[in-house]
Amino acid sequence: MFLSILRQKASIGVEGAPGKGLSHEPMTARLAVNVHSTHPAQIEPYPDRIRDLGLATNVAPFVSWKDPERFEQEGAHPMPKAISTFRTVKSPDGSREVYTHAIEKNESRLLSNFQALGTCCAGLMRYPKIQQI
Amino acid sequence: MLGFDAAVAALGFEPFDPVHILSAPTWKDRMRASWCVIGAAERTKALQLDYNTLHNYWPNTDFCSSDWDAEVEQWVAQPAAYDVSCEFDICSVVGSPPLPKLEFRI
User: Per the domain annotation, does B62 fall within a domain?
Assistant: First the structure.
């Protein structure tokens, strides 16, 4: 399967994220979301979120950033300074709700899955110069 | 577990959804692919949020325009929607495995 292949490729080990030096750690990023969480206010602190944006530290190593300027031209932005975490809360009926947490305002808000996917993609943008395997 | 697809999977998406999103060649196509996979209820929710107070993680708010749905449906119906060079050079690493066709979910 495609993603399995990706994981195998990723396990080879490549240059890590900025500030982390070489990384040969297995791709076992902690999830940024916890589907078993019971309260949206239980949000991990900002540094954890950065690390858990393993989105970046785990995906980016084999994502080639061909033309970062092009992204800027298209209006893409880096993760905002006031980064928000998001968390999935599973309801008793099995449905899931996503909350964002505005760090600077210390508040949680219901978030759409569309914006949650946006945070995932935006997380990829943090390490534009990391080369693929 | 890979961060990106794990995070996306944790949101309840199907296994190939993150692949569709990651292999989208541009930001706009990434928005379109995401718009397809979230389904109608989440599309409605996305439009109801106040982006004056909530950070919009997408590059723009094109998805709020009245003709966005039609644009995305037209885009996804194109047989070679992804047949351009990708900014995320994933396919060149692992080849181009067959993917289920991206659909505009109800």
Answer: yes
